[in-house]
Amino acid sequence: MNNCFHLKLTMRKNKKDWNGNSTSVFSTGGFSSHSQTPRQIHDFYATHPRAIDGLLSVYQLPPLILEPCCGNGSLSRRLEEFGYTVISEDLFEYGFGTSGIDFLQRNTMPVGCSSIVTNPPYNQALDFVLHALDILPMEGLCCMFLKTTFLEGQHRYHDLFKQFPPEAILQFVSRIPCAKNGEFSAMHGSAVSYAWFVWKKGSYSSYPIVKWIE
Fold first, then answer.
1. How confident is the model over 120-132, as pLDDT tens digits?
2. Which of 3, 137, 141, 150 lies at 20 to 30 Å from 61 by C-alpha?
């Protein structure tokens, strides 16, 4: 075979292999929805506790808080360190809080509790927000730690944002890691942007406050 032709054929083949394997880009970057690494069971990724510091830099929460997706307690423990009393629940058992409780099946809030702070499973986030706004008392706070891209989507717009816009969106300037099994030391940066979405039941403005958390 002609050497020049062989070189061109090899280059063309290599280029095709790369373009035809787009998952390589996402796997290298560690983007969870494309990574070849298996997803954590029940979609559990612990949120770094400094996410709470950002929320409390803007909001003073009521003294009693419900954390319905407590996981291994990373957010609950941090709230307790700030002096809050936290009712920690989860559908699954992760060694913290009360397990076996499905938040979406809750008919009422715990007695005396008027705030929810959590990082819900992303594939159920819309349902979690709507249900929280349903069972919270008037003026109750719903604080959801969500991907910034939660703002996108016609379905979320028509079912949630158009009817119940949040009071505030608190965007983190730096990335807050969410670690598989809560192993933050094993992480090397994060590819996902997060923000706190805060609703006050009954107080829905078409123009939410947007603040950046450093």
1. 998 999 999 999 9
2. 150
